[in-house]
Amino acid sequence: MVKICCIGAGYVGGPTMAVIALKCPSVQVAVVDIAQKRIEAWNSDKLPIYEPGLDDVVKQCRGKNLFFSTEVEKHVAEADIVFVSVNTPTKTTGLGAGKAADLTYWESAARMIADVSKSSKIVVEKSTVPVKTAEAIEKILTHNSKGIKFQILSNPEFLAEGTAIQDLFNPDRVLIGGRETPEGQNAIKALKDVYAHWVPEDRILTTNLWSAELSKLAANAFLAQRISSVNAMSALCEATGANVIEVSYAVGKDTRIGPKFLNASVGFGGSCFQKDILNLVYICECNGLPEVAEYWKQVIKINDYQKNRFVNRVVASMFNTVAKKKIAILGFAFKKDTGDTRETPAIDVCKGLLGDKAELSIYDPQVTEDQIHKDLALSKFDWDHPLHLQPMSASSSTEKQVTVVGDAYEAAKGAHGLCIMTEWDEFKTLDYKKIFDNMQKPAFVFDGRNVVNADQLREIGFIVFSIGKPLDAWLKDMPAVA
């Protein structure tokens, strides 16, 4: 029986290993992590992450050929294939601070693998890592191997949160990069044989190590670039009276462009886009390519601009101040169908409003009150360190200005304005007449995801701002200051 161990029980490791276990009943899969509470959650009825379809997959396999454990060294020692899916946060100090990936946890994992291994192993990069990470890991393993042979593979994930299980069941592609040596090719084949249990062979792509590592960064950079492009257009649409939905639809009809990732919004979030682009920028700078680095920096700049623009619009529309005003925040996760708040635009928007002394009432169907308060207190990039290394009792000076409530109606009760930050389906079907009746007047809706029918809300009596859509008279009379 082939034994697989995955170090890291997070958003990538947990779902990926669960699907491998389901699709490969003859393979034994162990997911290990030093975070006791996280492993306990994986072994309970309340999994540590929300992902549609994940519960069913885990329950079918757990205890049969899928195991969650804190016995890291034991399972690594027994494994034939070791996936490493640990945090690769952006460095906050030292060389490359603010851009480069911090490989502390990767290096620690590699040293541990070398220390406990008694047999040859295939070590698979599953975390998003900088180009040439494999070379560094290879050196650590080689110099600590005691004669044991290791082969390093790059197998980046291309999952979209909210559809991760379907993405795993039916991937666009599985990418495996390895050394162009007989041993490297044998390792590629061994991992390819695992995925071939359910993935058609023509969708399993094999490359050299560096191409696989760079392909992940490139894919995320291209997707983020599309979002920043349409968001840049959304500002122009508002200025000219064009409708960004009509513009993006017309652009997306061009088969060379296509319709995906052309929805204007308050900005992109998630664990990968910003981090990977910053990483790409750093790699470009280190390789003497400042013009290329500047190009990709602009994708981040537009994303920050979009969030700032949204905050400015809220404040300007409400007589240039939100001090002591209650603002309802609907949605805190970075996208619907996930409880993930990593780099969610809601954090920056909330911090911007709190900076102007607003009082926030926040509702999200999947994000806990503790997580919201923690996110608003953490410094930039702190979220990407393992839980046990994050500030234990993060508390914000603005915590008294923030209330987390159990539904949208409670959030909006008595509010001056309402900001839609996540495109949860339930926000499309709320009784907005009921919400309007219980809000202060004039009542404002700032739709950061274009989920509501602005004309219908205006008929009710709301003043509505929708990203990239023609401005109503009130907003033109009170322009946002950049």
Automatic annotation (TrEMBL):
Keywords: NAD, Oxidoreductase. Pathway: Nucleotide-sugar biosynthesis; UDP-alpha-D-glucuronate biosynthesis; UDP-alpha-D-glucuronate from UDP-alpha-D-glucose: step 1/1. SUPFAM superfamilies: 6-phosphogluconate dehydrogenase C-terminal domain-like, NAD(P)-binding Rossmann-fold domains, UDP-glucose/GDP-mannose dehydrogenase C-terminal domain. It catalyses: UDP-alpha-D-glucose + 2 NAD(+) + H2O = UDP-alpha-D-glucuronate + 2 NADH + 3 H(+). This is UDP-glucose 6-dehydrogenase. Belongs to the UDP-glucose/GDP-mannose dehydrogenase family. Pfam families: UDPG_MGDP_dh, UDPG_MGDP_dh_C, UDPG_MGDP_dh_N. The gene is LOC110749988. The lineage of its organism: Eukaryota, Viridiplantae, Streptophyta, Embryophyta, Tracheophyta.
